[in-house]
Amino acid sequence: MPDAGAHRPNPSSDIIHDVIVIGGGINGCGIAMDAAGRGLRVLLCEQDDLASATSSRSSKLIHGGLRYLEFFEFGLVGKALAERETLLRNAPHIIRPMRFRLPHQPHLRPAWMIRLGLFLYDHLARRETLPGSHGVKLQADSPLRPEITRGFEYSDAWVDDARLVVLVARAAAERGAVILPRTACVKAERQGDLWRVTLEDRRTGQRQQHRSRALVNAAGPWVSNLLGQVIESASRRPLRLVKGSHIVVPRMYSAEHAYILQNVDNRIVFVIPFEEDFSLIGTTDVDYQGDPAAAAISDEETRYLLRLVNSHFQRQLTASDVLWSFAGVRALADEAGGKAQAASRDYMLDIESAPGQAPLLSVLGGKITTYRRLAEQAADELCELLQRPSRAWTSAAALPGGDFPDHGTLLADLQKLYPWLPETIARRFARSYGTLTHELLGDCSSLNGMGRDFGAGLHALEVRYLIQHEWAATADDVLWRRSKLGLRLRPGQVAALQDYIELRSQWHRP
């Protein structure tokens, strides 16, 4: 692919793009990938890093949404379950099957109701790879409190959400899309059948104008802000902003399955094995007002999560156990009111088009699991609006690095080709880069050849790769979105990494 980081692309303003996409989260990158694969000339801009907001602050799950069945969202659940199978095939390096245990609490939901829900969950879409659900008796070695003796088990999948976004952006770039992180759209106005879009490089302050036949507003929780302040538009669809918060604690149990915990308020909370040595706990659902970029977990949300976990597990947590927390704001296409937890997670494509006027497509709502289907529908609409022939193609398209049969075979191949690579690094590379590991390592033939170790096995060679091929530009990009090594590095190591990245950016600055 073209160099994504060190040599920043500077597309000519004389070019007329078919589509300009605003927003570098999973939906924006998915639309850019699908549209570029259909032959459209695509430019994507993102005001910060790719996946810097909601798309990196999820529960890290590819799932149908078991709890949505209680709100009778059978269509959304079936759609998401079908996509779960597709994504497991297309991105096996960053998406993996995971079993979930649901402890039975008779005073919350009767067993017959849970069995019915799991039966529907097993059959609303075809299962090709994942085992079905069944009841379980909890043994003496269970980490749960001794009074919890029964439960249920079912399948879903885990995803490295931020890496998913980056790999989808790579796939878009490989098909000709121009990807511009840290580039804000400051003005978009119609000039007849074209959009004139003003972009600002947030690092230099330089502005450049581009023209496009169609515009996509995929700005997530900023969708309404753009429609009101940046984009010339008559659309004013109300959105509901809902904050979901998570905490990370030292690993609570050794088994690989996750838990889904019920609460008296009818919400559920996941406890998920995370990055080998940790447990991820979340999420909350609270209405949010204010700047989505400033979203953070509140003390009340932390207490809520700890209280629910402590009511189920023998090991008791306190606030001092929280190693990291994050909060994301979801923009939900919901006009029905009611509790935040009941707001629909389904997506809506709002199209504003008139004869002789350049079309605008705004993405409302959505979840990571259904991003590919959302992007496919959006690309269908764009091709129809632009009167371009098109054919859906992404359902069988492996994402970069995902072209291998299974993890065991991939890891064995890496250990055979690079016997000098420590097993911990080989395992991390396999689950982060897949077959892109060969591109990352290139002709390197020793651990010393990977250069400086910044800590936790993060070497200079990998950092340079992330700068050049995955748009990384800061230590946070590397440590929290391209990886989760931020959980392991000390402040001094982080500072050294940032100094190294800034020095490299000076070397390559035009």
Any key phrases for this structure?
single chain; 510 residues; alpha+beta; FAD/NAD(P)-binding domain; D-Amino Acid Oxidase, Chain A, domain 2; Helicase, Ruva Protein, domain 3; 3 domains; 10-stranded mixed sheet; 8-stranded mixed sheet; 13 helices; 18 strands; globular; Glycerol-3-phosphate dehydrogenase; FAD; EC 1.1.5.3
Can you offer a commentary on this structure?
- The protein folds into three domains: 16-54 and 163-239 and 345-396, FAD/NAD(P)-binding domain (3-Layer(bba) Sandwich); 98-158 and 240-334, 2-Layer Sandwich (D-Amino Acid Oxidase, Chain A, domain 2), CATH 3.30.9; 407-507, Helicase, Ruva Protein, domain 3.
- Helix content is 30%, strand content 23%.
- It contains 13 helices and 18 strands.
- It has helices at residues 26-37, 74-90, 111-123, 161-174, 223-229, 299-310, 371-385, 407-417, 423-433, 437-441, 460-469, 475-481, 491-507; strands at residues 16-22, 42-45, 61-62, 95-103, 134-137, 150-159, 178-180, 183-191, 194-201, 207-217, 240-250, 258-262, 268-274, 278-282, 286-287, 324-332, 347-352, 360-365.
- Strands 3, 4, 5, 6, 11, 12, 13, 14, 15 and 16 form a ten-stranded mixed sheet that branches. Strands 1, 2, 7, 8, 9, 10, 17 and 18 form an eight-stranded mixed sheet that branches.
- The longest helix is centred in the first third of the chain and has 17 residues, at 74-90.
